[in-house]
Amino acid sequence: GASRCMQEICQQQGKTYYEVSDVCAAVQLSQKLALPQERVVFSPGATSFGLFHNEFHRGDVFRECVENMNA
Is pTM beyond 0.85 here? Predict the structure, then answer.
């Protein structure tokens, strides 16, 4: 599937690949891995059919995860 392809591309490029269960897990992992001066860009690399109603819902879920990080 798409995630296997992404994993192979990352390995070929010498990049680390992480697979997470949901958007909030991705936000939490990025907070853990990023250094204080770094910025993280959220850019889904594959479709999320069935996980969200639409791209706006996906953005709302992401925003909620970010807002709850430091709550």
Answer: no
